[in-house]
Amino acid sequence: MSLNDREIDRPLGQGTKGRGSRKLNLTLNSVLSTVVALVILGSSTAIALRERPFRHPAPVAVATVEPAENGTESDATSARTVEAGSSDAPAEAPSQPSGGPRILKVQPGDNPGQGAIVIRDPSALGQNLRVAHLPDRDLIEESDTGPLPVRAADGRRPFDVYARPWSGARGARVAIVLGGLAISQTGTQAAIEKLPAEITLAFSPQGNSIDRWMQAARRKGHEIVMQVPLEPYDYPNVDPGKNTLTTEASAQENVGKLNWALSRTTNYTGIMNFMGARFSADAEAMQPLFADLGKRGLLYLDDGSSARSVAPELALKNGVPFAAADATLDANRERGEIMKKLDELERTARAKGFAIGIGSAFGETVDAVSAWVSEARKRGMEIVPISALAIDPER
């Protein structure tokens, strides 16, 4: 066959000249295309798999709570998986058992299997509101008279753990404390049911079924304090009740009487005086009381009835969180007069930033306070628990 015949048999456009270079160019182009495709595929995969802040919420802390033995299974279950930041989660983190710094597992909401370990300051942890009626066993000291409040081994105080959360805003704030709970069964039930959760309730150690009423109040979200009877002038003609602390008693006797009152129930942030104009003016008599409160991590609320009270100075000296009332709301139990006192309390709060009112859980007081709180909120007033307005020497 001639050369021209071989040319006819070749595909159109191909010749013998430059054949090897064209094959090399085709091979390089194929490799380059493959590499580019792999790079694009890898980049797309990385982008698809990476975490995007605008797609995923911030990690939510999931912690566990060990409820007291008398808690129900439903209480324990609800406390076991509380997601901070969920719409129905309480504002507080669960309290943790004692024994040093707490380790919490932080889990992303979309992928619970991938979590990180963070260490939290235990003193910053309050009690989960879903189990607020259950005592924190790390804050209990057993005694002959019953369970006594005590600081936990990790430094947490009842004042911190049992405090009701609030916004922390700097606006005008009012705290209202109503006492005499557990004296009248029907009155106590009405107060717990009708009063807004922000109202602090004070329990009388002379009352009945205090543990039951404490749990009912805490389930409703109320912060609570214990009333302690102190010697008034003209004692015993004016008698605050059983185990009144007196100026004539020894320090040991008075601390024993105080501990009796403290052991009547638990889950409270501190105490407030019941009467006590004479006792509260005697620094020597008051010092053992404040030393015990400081050791236990409890607040002292002064009802403000005595200008001679030495409580502010002793609270600072002994590291006791302290608050003093600005007004008694129901010295006159007529509804209109109570409303006037509440309005005065609001004016005080707007003038100095906060105000504290105290009263008793009379039906008239409960109804007036409930109505006033509803209207005060609309005027931008924040109602806070008493712990929110206490001066705390440890902070």
Automatic annotation (TrEMBL):
The chain crosses the membrane at residues 26-49. Gene3D superfamilies: Glycoside hydrolase/deacetylase. Residues 1-10 have a biased composition (Basic and acidic residues). Keywords: Membrane, Transmembrane, Transmembrane helix. It comes from the Bacteria. One of its GO terms (biological process) is carbohydrate metabolic process. The keyword Chaperone does not apply. InterPro entries: Divergent_DAC (IPR006837), Glyco_hydro/deAcase_b/a-brl (IPR011330). The keyword Transmembrane helix applies. CDD domains: CE4_DAC2. Residues 71-80 have a biased composition (Polar residues). Residues 1-21, 66-116 are annotated as: Disordered. This is Divergent polysaccharide deacetylase family protein. It comes from Pseudaminobacter soli. The lineage of its organism: Bacteria, Pseudomonadati, Pseudomonadota, Alphaproteobacteria, Hyphomicrobiales.
